[in-house]
Design brief:
This protein is an alpha/beta fold and about 300 residues long. The chain has two domains: about 150 residues, 3-Layer(aba) Sandwich (Rossmann fold); about 90 residues, Orthogonal Bundle (Helicase, Ruva Protein, domain 3). It starts with a helix and ends in a 5-residue tail after the last helix.
Length: about 300
């Protein structure tokens, strides 16, 4: 499967120009089964990245446009009374899918945002006391606008902690933007691509990622990072055990995409800002949080 990862990266690079690192990060997260949050201004390719990877991974995409009048039932589904059966029947909402694009997530009210809390953690929905599980793969890529834009609601810490990874795409370099201006319609380019994987391949890949080796000294390094962050960063209390577990899993997934059967310190150093940054950034945003984690990485001794 490692060769297929490289093929995915090569194909994606032809469509989303100049974003190899971001594509590599999101691919690592999706293969590990983690949810992703992308924060940036409109028009830099957030939605394109989601459609691009859904195509290459062979996943069906379900898009939910978040607005301030969206209700939890519009996402999860609702009970409908069937007169002919004289009983209530659950009508599934758009959250029941393989790859969910939660577009402009922070334009919905906190009540609606909270509809994702259970489903992101437990991969099931509870409606009127009944549980409805979601099938694997189930992955969410949420996009959000910068918090200073009009009509946005800040995501609570409990919501942020459920995202495995966060990143920004940022503006392309001048040379890549020149190519983008001359490029054909990106949606057409995506539709021309042949899927590299299929949905049924992902459970096996996730098992392979679980088997990637992490040394005891590297686990101690991760624990040092988390402990130091909790004491050294003002928002460090949000570095929960889930954050540490996600960092281990992310390191394994990144090593897998790189074609290795073990994690090295460089994997952790590359990926830590994207796994931990949104958890400590708070109202100051993802970039601020990533900066704190990069400073933290310079303070904690690397094991070897």
């Amino acid at each position: 499967m490692e060769n297929k990862c490289q093929l995915i990266l090569e194909q994606a690079d032809k469509v989303l120009l100049g974003k190899n690192n971001e594509i590599r990060l999101v691919l690592s997260s999706l293969l590990a089964g983690g949810h992703v949050l992308i924060e940036d201004v409109p028009g830099v390719g957030k939605t394109t990245l989601v459609y691009l990877l859904s195509r290459l991974l062979g996943l069906e995409i379900s898009r939910i446009q978040f607005t301030n009048d969206l209700l939890p039932g519009d996402i999860l589904g609702t009970m409908i009374y069937r007169k002919e059966k004289e009983e209530f029947e659950f009508k599934k909402g758009p959250i029941f899918g393989q790859l969910i694009l939660a577009d402009e997530l922070n334009r919905a009210t906190p009540k609606t945002q909270s509809a994702l809390l259970q489903v992101m953690e437990e991969r099931k929905v509870t409606v009127e006391g009944q549980e409805f599980p979601l099938e694997y793969p189930f992955l969410i890529i949420g996009t959000q606008n910068p918090f200073f834009q009009v009509g946005t609601f800040q995501l609570p810490e409990s919501q942020l902690d459920r995202f495995f990874m966060s990143l920004q795409l940022d503006f392309p370099s001048r040379e890549f933007e020149r190519q983008i201006l001359l490029q054909a319609d990106t949606r057409s380019l995506i539709n021309e691509l042949t899927p590299v994987l299929e949905a049924q391949d992902l459970p096996k890949i996730k098992e392979d990622i679980e088997s990637i080796h992490v040394s005891d000294s590297l686990i101690d390094y991760l624990l040092d990072l988390i402990e130091y962050g909790r004491n050294d960063i003002e928002e460090g209390a949000y570095l929960s055990p889930r954050a540490g577990k996600d960092l281990v899993q992310a390191g394994k997934a990144y090593a897998y995409v790189e074609g290795r059967d073990h994690v090295i310190p460089v994997d952790i150093q590359k990926i830590a800002p994207y796994i931990l940054g949104h958890r400590v950034g708070g109202s100051k945003g993802i970039l601020y949080g990533q900066g704190l984690i990069r400073e933290l990485l310079e303070k904690v001794k690397v094991p070897y």
